[in-house]
C-alpha cells in the first residue's frame, strides 16, 4: 500500500490536519466487568440513556456501523475508510497508562501489530485517575494515576515503539503526542527532558508535545517544555458563554448551552502568543454518563452549524500554521458524550459529508468515496475466501436445520404423548362400558328367568336394572 501521509507527515495539501479523537472503550474488558457488571462497554450507558426534558434527543444511537466491537478488525477498517473518504487526516487514540499498566489497550495494540488499517494516528495520554462511578463523583478510586521519573522512562520507551510506525502522525517531522492534563504532571519540564533524551537514544526526533487546555488550565506551552497548546471542547466553556434558561422539566443541576453561541464564542477567541490548536465539537451531551444530574448539553447542533465552525478553524489554522497546523475534532466516536462523526440513526452521514464538503471547498485533497485501488486489492476476496465463506454459511444452515429438526422432534414427541394419553383414556372408558354392559345383561337374564317361572318382580329389582342402564349410558 502507499503511505497515507506525505513526506513531512502533514498530508498532501496545504490545509492543516484534521485529527479526530478516538475512544477505544467499545469492547469488553475484565476490569469493566468487575467495576460495572458483566459485558459492560460504552454502549451500555449509551443505549439506556433517556431524555431529560421535552425536545431532548436521547438516546443517540449508531447508524450504519451499529453497536460495534472494536476487537473486530473489519470494524476498525470500516471506520478508517469512512474517515479517509470524508476528509479526516488521522485518529487520535486515547492512551491510558498507569505506571506500566495500560487500560482499554487492545484495539490500538492490534492496530499497531497488524499494520491495519492503513490510516494515520497519534496518541493522547489521558493522564488522570479513574473512578468507578460515571456521575462526576470521585468517591471510589479504582485506578490511581501516579508519576515518577522511573515511570517517565518506561512510558516513553513504550511510546517510542508506536512512534516508529510509519503511520504515526508527525508535525514538522516529529511524532505528535498530546497530554490531556499537563498540569497534573508534578514536574513537566523534567518529564519532557527525559522523554527527549530517550527518543534521542533511540534515534528518533523529539515528540511534538501538545498540552490540552483542560479544567481551566491555560499556560504557555514553552513554560512546561511543550510545543503547542490545544483547546478541548467543552473545557473553558463557562468563561465564554452563558447557559440557556433551563428548559421545562430540566433538573437545575444540568447545564444547557446553545451550540451556535458556543461555536461563535470559540471562533472569536483571540490568538495567544504561542501555538494553540483549535478544537471543533460535532456536539456535546454527556447525559448518558450523568443521568442523575450535572449533565452538560450543547443544544441545536446541526451539520451546517458544525460545518461553519470547522471551516473557520481550518482557515484560521491555515493562515497561522499552514500544513503544520492541526484542527482537533471532538470526536470520532464519543457516543456517551454526544460527540461523534460516525453516522447515527438521526443524521446518518451528514456530519461526515459536511466535513468532506468543507475540506474540498477549501482546496483540500480527499480521496474518492469509493475504495482506492490499494484497498480494493487487499479487500477483494480470493477463491479460497469465497470457499471459506460458503462453507461457513453451509455450517450455519446445518446448525439452523438441526435446530428446526430438534424443534420438530420435540413437537412430534409432544403430540405422540398427548394422543397416547387420549387413547389410554378411551380404552379405560371402553373397558368400563363393557363391564357395565355385561352386568346389565346378567341382570336382565336373571329377571327373565324369574318371569318365566311366574315369580313377581320386586320394585327394588326394577330400580337396580334402571340404575345399571343409566350408568351404561
Principal-axes shape call: elongated
Number of helices: 12
> Which class do the helix and strand fractions yield?
alpha/beta
* Assembly category: single chain
- Low-pLDDT parts are 1-10, 371-381
CATH superfamily of the largest domain: Glycosidases
- Summed over residues and divided by their number, the pLDDT gives a mean of 88
Backbone CA Rg: 37 Å
Q: Kindly report the CATH topology of the largest domain.
A: TIM Barrel
**Which series of helices and strands comes N to C?**
EHHHEEHEEEHEEHEEEHEEEEHEHHHH
Roughly how many Å apart are the termini?
A: 92 Å
State the CATH class of the largest domain.
Alpha Beta
By DSSP, the count of extended strands is 16
Itemize the secondary structure elements and their pairings.
Elements: E1 17-22, H1 30-36, H2 42-47, H3 73-85, E2 90-98, E3 101-103, H4 106-114, E4 121-125, E5 130-131, E6 141-143, H5 149-163, E7 170-171, E8 174-179, H6 188-201, E9 208-212, E10 228-230, E11 255-258, H7 259-267, E12 276-277, E13 279-281, E14 284-285, E15 296-299, H8 303-320, E16 326-330, H9 350-361, H10 373-379, H11 383-452, H12 459-472
Parallel strand pairs: 1-2, 1-16, 2-4, 4-8, 8-9, 9-10, 10-12, 11-15, 13-16
Antiparallel strand pairs: 2-3, 5-6, 7-8, 14-15
Helix pairs in contact: 5-6, 7-8, 8-9, 11-12
Index terms:
2 domains; TIM Barrel
Structure, described:
With 473 residues, the chain is α/β, with parallel strands linked by helices. It has 12 helices and 16 strands. The chain has helices at residues 30-36, 42-47, 73-85, 106-114, 149-163, 188-201, 259-267, 303-320, 350-361, 373-379, 383-452, 459-472, and strands at 17-22, 90-98, 101-103, 121-125, 130-131, 141-143, 170-171, 174-179, 208-212, 228-230, 255-258, 276-277, 279-281, 284-285, 296-299, 326-330. Strands 1, 2, 3, 4, 7, 8, 9, 10, 12, 13 and 16 form an 11-stranded mixed β-sheet that branches. Strands 11-15-14 form a 3-stranded mixed β-sheet. A two-stranded antiparallel ribbon has the order 5-6. β2 and β3 form a beta hairpin. The radius of gyration is 37 Å and the shape is elongated. Mean pLDDT is 88; it is low at 1-10 and 371-381.
Amino acid at each position: 500500500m502507499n503511505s497515507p501521509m506525505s513526506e513531512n507527515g502533514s498530508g498532501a495539501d496545504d490545509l492543516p490536519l484534521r485529527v479526530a479523537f478516538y475512544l477505544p472503550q467499545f469492547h469488553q474488558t475484565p476490569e469493566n466487568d468487575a467495576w460495572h457488571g458483566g459485558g459492560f462497554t460504552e454502549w451500555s450507558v449509551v443505549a439506556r440513556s433517556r431524555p431529560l426534558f421535552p425536545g431532548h434527543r436521547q438516546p443517540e444511537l449508531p447508524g450504519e456501523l451499529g453497536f460495534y466491537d472494536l476487537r473486530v478488525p473489519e470494524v476498525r477498517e470500516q471506520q478508517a475508510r469512512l474517515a479517509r473518504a470524508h476528509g479526516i487526516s488521522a485518529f487520535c487514540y486515547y492512551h491510558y497508562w498507569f505506571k506500566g499498566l495500560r487500560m482499554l489497550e487492545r484495539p490500538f495494540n492490534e492496530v499497531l501489530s497488524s499494520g491495519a488499517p492503513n490510516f494515520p494516528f497519534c496518541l493522547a495520554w489521558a493522564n488522570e485517575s479513574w473512578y468507578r462511578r460515571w456521575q462526576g463523583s470521585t468517591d471510589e478510586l479504582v485506578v490511581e494515576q501516579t508519576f515518577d521519573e522511573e515511570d517517565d522512562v518506561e512510558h516513553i520507551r513504550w511510546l517510542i515503539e508506536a512512534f516508529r510506525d510509519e503511520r504515526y502522525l508527525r508535525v514538522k517531522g516529529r511524532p505528535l503526542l498530546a497530554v490531556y492534563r499537563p498540569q497534573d504532571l508534578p514536574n513537566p519540564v523534567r518529564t519532557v527532558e527525559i522523554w527527549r533524551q530517550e527518543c534521542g537514544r533511540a534515534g528518533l526526533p523529539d515528540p511534538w508535545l501538545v498540552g490540552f487546555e483542560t479544567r481551566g488550565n491555560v499556560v504557555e506551552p514553552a513554560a512546561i517544555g511543550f510545543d503547542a497548546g490545544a483547546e478541548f471542547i467543552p473545557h473553558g466553556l463557562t468563561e465564554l458563554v452563558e447557559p440557556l434558561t433551563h428548559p421545562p422539566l430540566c433538573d437545575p443541576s444540568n447545564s444547557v448551552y446553545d451550540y451556535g453561541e458556543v461555536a461563535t464564542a470559540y471562533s472569536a477567541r483571540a490568538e495567544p502568543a504561542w501555538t494553540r490548536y483549535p478544537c471543533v465539537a460535532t456536539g456535546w451531551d454527556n447525559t448518558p454518563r450523568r443521568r442523575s444530574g450535572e449533565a452538560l448539553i450543547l443544544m441545536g447542533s446541526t451539520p451546517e452549524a458544525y460545518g461553519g465552525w470547522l471551516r473557520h478553524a481550518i482557515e484560521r489554522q491555515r493562515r497561522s500554521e499552514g500544513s503544520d497546523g492541526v484542527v482537533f475534532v471532538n470526536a470520532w466516536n464519543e457516543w456517551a458524550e454526544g460527540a461523534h462523526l460516525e453516522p447515527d440513526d438521526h443524521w446518518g452521514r451528514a456530519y461526515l459529508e459536511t466535513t468532506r464538503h468543507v475540506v474540498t471547498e477549501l482546496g483540500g485533497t480527499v480521496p474518492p468515496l469509493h475504495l482506492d485501488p490499494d484497498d480494493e486489492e487487499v479487500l477483494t476476496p480470493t477463491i479460497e475466501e469465497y470457499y471459506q465463506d460458503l462453507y461457513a454459511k453451509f455450517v450455519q444452515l446445518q446448525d439452523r436445520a438441526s435446530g428446526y429438526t430438534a424443534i420438530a422432534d420435540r413437537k412430534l414427541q409432544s403430540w405422540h404423548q398427548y394422543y397416547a394419553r387420549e387413547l389410554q383414556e378411551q380404552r379405560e372408558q371402553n373397558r368400563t362400558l363393557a363391564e357395565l354392559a355385561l352386568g346389565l345383561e346378567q341382570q336382565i337374564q336373571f329377571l327373565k328367568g324369574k318371569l318365566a317361572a311366574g315369580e313377581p318382580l320386586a320394585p327394588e329389582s326394577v330400580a337396580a336394572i334402571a340404575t345399571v342402564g343409566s350408568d351404561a349410558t
